[in-house]
Amino acid sequence: YPSEFLMQKITEDNQIPVHLHVSVSLQYVAGLKGNALVEFFHGNIAEVENEELRHLMWSSVLFYKTPNVEVMACVLLSTKAIYFLLDDSFIHADEYQSDFWNKENSDCENSSFHLSCCFVLKLNDLQSVNVGLFDQYFRITGHSADHIVTCLTRDSYNTHTFIQQLMAVLSLLARTPSPEPVDKDFYSEFGSKNTGKMENYELIHSSRVKFIYPNEEEIGDLAFLVAEKMDGLTNLQSLNILLYVLAFQVNHIEGSAQNTSSLQPKTLILTSSDLFLFDEDYISYPLPEFAKEPPKRDKYQLVDGRRIRDLDRVLMGYQTYPQALTFVFDDVQNQDLMQNLTLDHFGE
C-alpha cells in the first residue's frame, strides 16, 4: 500500500477547481503529489495507524448547522472515516455557530501557521447517503445534526465516483448483522404500503448504510412548482424540465481594486418555455429523522425567471471548464414573469 495506480489517481484528483478561492493552508495541500500526499494524510489527518487513504475529492460543502455557508473542502475517504479538510475562514464565517467548532487554537491566528479545521465523520457513524437530482450533489447523514454534510460536487462524474468508492470501503467494515432480514420478500415489500406515495429508491448496503436516490416523483413535484411560479397558466402535461444544473450566478462588484466578481450558488432549471434561477436548500431535505420541526425555508425559492422567447443572444466565454454563459434578454417594457403570458406581445 498504496498501489501505483491509486497514487496516480489521488494525485490527479488533487486539483482545486479554478473558479473557487481557498486559503493558503488548502493551497499547500493541493500542491502535494504522490507519496508526499499520502505521508501528509498519515502524519496530520489519519486517526488510526493502519487506515488507508482510498479517495480524494475537492468539493464545496454545506453543514446542517450552518446551512447558509458554503465552504471549499478537500474530502478524503479512508478505510475508517471521511475527512473534510476545511478552509480556515469557515470558523469565522458564522459567528453564532462558533460553538460548533473547537476554538482551542484561536491564539495561533497571528502567527506564521496556517490553520485548517478538519471535520471527521467515522464510517461506523454513517447512517444514510442521499443522492441529489441528476447526481449534482449528495448528502451524508450520521447520528445527529452535527453529522450531516452535503457535498455540492456540481458534477455527476465526481458524485458517482465518490459513491462507488464509499460503497467499496463500507464493504470492508465488520458490522454485526442486522436482526431483521435485509432482503424482504415480495409480499412484505409491496403489501404493507398504506400510503399512496411512492418512496424514494433505497439501496441498503451490506454495512446497513442506506443509499437513497430520487424517484420520478421528485421531478414531477419540481415541474409542478415551476408551473406554479409561472402563475399556473402552463399546461402541466406540456411542461418538460429539460435541464437541472447547480451553477453559480456571477455578480460583478463595482468600484473594487480589481474588477472582481462574486459567485452566488444557484439552481438553474430550463423548461421548454422558460429559464429559471432558484435558491435551493441542499441540506435540510429530506428531513432527518431527529428533526423536530420543518426547515425555516422552502426547498426551492424563485430568484429570477425569463421567457425563452425574450432571449436575444447567449454569449460564451472561451475559457476551459467551468464555462461562463451570459444570457441577454430583450428589454421588454413592463415585462413581468408573473403576468398573463397569453397576452398579445405587441398589444397595449
From TrEMBL:
Cellular compartment(s): Cytoplasm
Stored Pfam families: PH_NISCH_C, PH_PLEKHM2
One Gene Ontology CC term in the entry: endosome membrane
Highest taxon of the lineage: Eukaryota
GO molecular function terms listed in the Swiss-Prot or TrEMBL record: kinesin binding
Major place of residence: cytoplasm
GO biological process: Golgi organization; lysosome localization; regulation of protein localization
Annotated keywords: Cytoplasm
Nischarin C-terminal PH domain span: 241-347
PLEKHM2 PH domain ranges (all copies): 114-178
The name this protein goes by in its record: NISCH protein
Lineage: Eukaryota, Metazoa, Chordata, Craniata, Vertebrata
